[in-house]
Amino acid sequence: MVVAAALVDGDGRVLVQRRPAGKPMAGLWEFPGGKVEAGELPEFALARELEEELGISLDPGLVKPCAFASETLGTKHLLLLLYTLRNWSGTPAARHADALQWVYPGELHALEMPPADVPLIAALEKLV
Ligand SMILES: Nc1nc2c([nH]c(=O)n2[C@H]2C[C@H](O)[C@@H](COP(=O)(O)OP(=O)(O)OP(=O)(O)O)O2)c(=O)[nH]1
Predict the structure, then answer these.
(1) Does 77 sit in the ligand 1 pocket, CB within 6 Å?
(2) Atom 17 (ligand 1): residue with closest C-alpha?
(3) Locate the Nudix hydrolase domain: which residues (predicted)?
(4) Which domains does the chain show, CATH number per domain?
(5) 43 C-alpha to ligand 1 centroid (Å)
């Protein structure tokens, strides 16, 4: 199970990051996040991952469920839970990704994203 967040700024743009060389799906744009560890609540896993990947801190109670994807990836099955987040502390910085960008949800269609993310764009367009 993987949790990810669309950080939403005051203009209604969302943050995406580019997966670095050496990782599966390198070069694709994704929502910051990562795997939920055993015994961890999803919202706390998300707060941990966003601290590690972006250097921001957040209240796990303030993330809002947005959509999910269920997709077979090679020999594994991915359950991806996407949340939105509008309040956090700190300025996001690319600690793991090789680039960050803020885009309007409609602009996500033009980015190369993992297959599981593509159906999530429509949900974000409605919610943001
Ligand atoms: N973070 C994130 N992962 C995604 C998205 N879409 C998608 O298919 N994935 C997949 C890619 C990976 O197979 C998996 C996330 O694993 P990861 O390896 O990036 O996560 P992690 O940060 O826990 O990584 P690591 O410690 O194993 O390096 O979910 C997305 O939008 N965001």
Answers:
(1) no
(2) 34
(3) 1-125
(4) 2-127 (3.90.79.10)
(5) 15
